[in-house]
Amino acid sequence: MMMQNHQDMKSNNKFIKIEKFFKKLPKQINIELRKYRRFHVTNKKKNIFDPVTNIDKNIEKFIRKKIVNVFPNHKIIGEEIKNRKSKSDYTWYIDPIDGTKNLILGVPLWSNLIGLFYKDKSIISLANFPMLKTFYLAYGGKTFKFENNKKKILLSNKKIRKKINITLNTLRPFENSKIRKIQKTHKGIFKISGIDALNFCLVAEGKIDILIEKGLKQVDFFPLISIIENSGAIISDWQGKKRFNDGDVLVSGNKKNHLKFLKFLKK
User: Is the distance from CB of 40 to CB of 53 less than 8 angstroms?
Assistant: First the structure.
């Protein structure tokens, strides 16, 4: 039997520590959320309504405190608070309340998103849906759904449906004439869902075939990348790269559909 070298053991121990940390987070966040019976809304921008609540800010503070207590040298990029800089190769991406408008409206599909990158690679993703009592966690090359105390491995849809299911989260992609053309000619489901991060998770479950997003911020989808990729699904920008400079994102359940839509978008 070949013995592990010291560096491998050190790396494995660190990953086990990270994995345990992530598994505890959903319950910890859900308990913290019970403190907030009411919320106060303010607008982050002058020209358009971009709401933020006291819950967004306080939950990000709570998550950051948890991270810093265990991983004091890691970088943190969050939605509501100034970035935490460091020379570490580890970077956390946090969207404390993804779907703030849903939270305000009482739609129970908002979530807490936390992802960890090592250099430029996503290694763990968490999407916690407190009102659904469900969370998605991706690590070790697999994506899991935890619901009703049951753990399920997720796989995206590898079959090519004759009528594929396409979702957009908002109207933003309709700025592109090619997307409007798809909507007019598509014979399957084409839906503007407004369910934010849940769209990504449903691709991982094999329920949505194509997700088209435009103008996203890093914290909107970087925490979800392992959930997508570990399920076998594919995520790229509209050029088929992973630059995401303009926040335009294409997510597909399989390679054939992804290449087909990239070809259409590039025409």
Answer: yes
